[in-house]
Amino acid sequence: MAGRQPDEPQGALQVLDVVLREVASQRYLSVRRSFYSPDIRTPQRLGDGLQSWFGFYQSIRPTQMGLSLNIDMSSTAFVEPLPVIDFAAQILGKDVMSRPLSDANRVRVKKALRDLKVEITHRGSLRRKYRVFGLTAQPTHELIFLIDDEMKSVIEYFKEMYGFTIKQQHLPCLLVGNQKKPNYLPMEACKIVEGQRYKKRLNEKQITSLLKVTCQRPGDKEMDIRRTVHQNGYDQDPYAKEFGINISDKLTSIEARVLPAPWLKYHDTGKESECLPRVGQWDMKNKKVVNGCTVNHWASINFSRSVQESTASGFCQELAQTCRLLGMEFNSEPAIPMYSARPEQAVQALKHVYNAALKKLKGKELELLLVILPDSNGALYGDIKRICETELGLMSQCCLAKHVFKICKRYLANVSLKINVKMGGRNTVLLDAVSRRIPLVSDIPTIIFGADVTHPETREDTSPSIAAVVASQDWPEVTKYAGLVCAQAYRQELIQDLYKTWHLDEFPFFVQLHTGSF
Asked: Which positions fall inside the Piwi domain (predicted)?
């Protein structure tokens, strides 16, 4: 059609998408392109007053086979609809009915409740809803307010007005309504309203719990998707019928093939120099890395209070021994003795170990730091990586305390492989690459690039996106990669600094090469 705008097909897709989302929007809670309900699957607790709700993602996509309806299962965190007292107990991890809240605990509960909707439970079937904006600084038994030119306590008011006896008088009241003229609601007379999505950052424990409940085998996921399509009844959707849209209840079938596993090449001094992975798995038994790194100067630090210094030192010695068995040159003795510190002292401890090692090594560089972390370490891991990588210029390898207590040969081998790559070694190469049998790549010197951008969650609109580019360095094996990482504009998919204009005078060697004077 003459005059058609380039964005018209996208607009048509958006119209179809809106039509097919109408019925689901009436049945479920809509969160961006996904729909959630506690009826889809039983919610699972995530801890600290949160639970996971299951749902599904839906969108219309143009494909080579025509228009397709894309359905996928999803899950996100919601605030658990608990009585407010039970919610506070989960936040603090202890009973709150026996003693008054400390100032610190009151602030924690206040932050958790702020902006949440609660409904009253002391007036029978009347369930008025309010939004919480704070907590009183005083316990309920100290609260008085002016009503009809008379000062009255909160306890007296609720008894006279509603016949409700406040039992937990040592707890503060919720502040709701107008901030200039707030209303007091006893915590025991309130319950959190169901269906409130949690928009703040999840802690490490909650993320782990969410991943556990969302992890599914492909067959189970297929069954859930089929069940979702059946329950939504797209073939009976009145809005789809009105627009003449027909949705097949069958999954799309495409032809595919399973590529054979590649043979892997290890060092010839091992009992097994070649290996064929089976079902995507293989191990390092009887094998040595194809190129072992050299670690002459290393140190260790223990941030776990549950791990004794002797146990931590023994673990590090076992790890060093495993590295040697796998073909690396790894000094058996650390530059300085094991150092123990508390997690909150991470910055000072890391710099202390680094400087102490430099002093002992008399000008030689510390190459590797082994770090033992508590099993629940919060932001400690990120702090360690940031300080070591950006401030000290030091490679680090972190291990959880639970692995230190139960030393497993397979775990030690896996960690050793990580150390080898970090320190410049190569664990294995493809046998076809060594034999120059990879099409195109083996024909001429080739660099393989990889690039991606990772975006923060939509709720974290102040966090940058992270762009990364890697490139192979060791043709013809193309196994060893160098990488660059940088932050860029929020949710920008195009890598910001991927293209750059260079001037020839910045590269005198390049100029000489092309003028024939090299």
From this structure: 368-518
- Do 57 and 91 belong to one domain? no
**pLDDT tens readout for residues 486-511:** 889 888 888 887 766 655 555 444 44
| Residue 500 pLDDT | 62
Same structural domain for residues 277 and 397?
yes
Residue 211 lies in a domain: yes
Same-domain pairing of 393 and 453 = no
Residues 208, 187 share a domain = no
Q: For the residues 400-409, what does the mean pLDDT come to?
A: 92
Q: Can you say how many angstroms the Cα of residue 165 is from the centroid of all Cα atoms in its chain?
A: 45
Same domain, 380 and 391: yes
* pLDDT value, residue 63: 83
Per-residue pLDDT, averaged over 364-382, amounts to 92
pLDDT tens, position by position, 477-486: 999 998 888 8
Taking 60 as the threshold, does the pLDDT of residue 8 lie above it? Answer: no
Predicted TM-score of the model (pTM): 0.73
200-232 residues labelled b (16+ CB within 10 A) or e (exposed): eebbeebeebbeebeeeeeeeeeebeeebbeeb
Residue given tokens 């899950």 in the structure block: 75
**Dihedral angle sign, alpha carbons of residues 250, 252, 256, 258:** negative
Domain boundary among 133, 165, 192: 192
User: Is the domain of 73 the same as that of 29?
Assistant: yes
Look up the CATH number of the domain holding residue 76.
3.30.530
The 10s digit of each residue's pLDDT in 199-242 is 888 888 898 899 988 888 999 999 999 998 888 888 888 998 88
Which pair of tokens denotes residue 226?
């089929």
What domain count does the chain have? Answer: 4
Name which residue leads in pLDDT, 61 or 85.
85
| Domain-embedded: residue 433 | no
Q: Strand locations in 278-415, DSSP E?
A: 294-295, 298-302, 329-330, 339-340, 368-373, 395-400
pLDDT at 56 over 70: yes
Same domain? For 329 and 418 the reply is: yes
Question: pLDDT value at position 208?
Answer: 86
438 falls within a domain: no
Instruction: Report CA-CA distances (Å) from 496 to 241, 450, 458, 502.
Output: 45, 15, 20, 16
Cβ(370)–Cβ(399) below 8 Å: yes
Cis ω on the peptide bond leading into residue 277 (within 30° of 0)? no
Size (the chain), residues: 518
CA–CA gap between residue 475 and residue 471 (Å, rounded)? 11
Query: 59 and 135 share a domain?
Result: no
Q: Which residues contact 455 (CB under 8 A, 6 or more apart)?
A: 465, 490, 491, 493
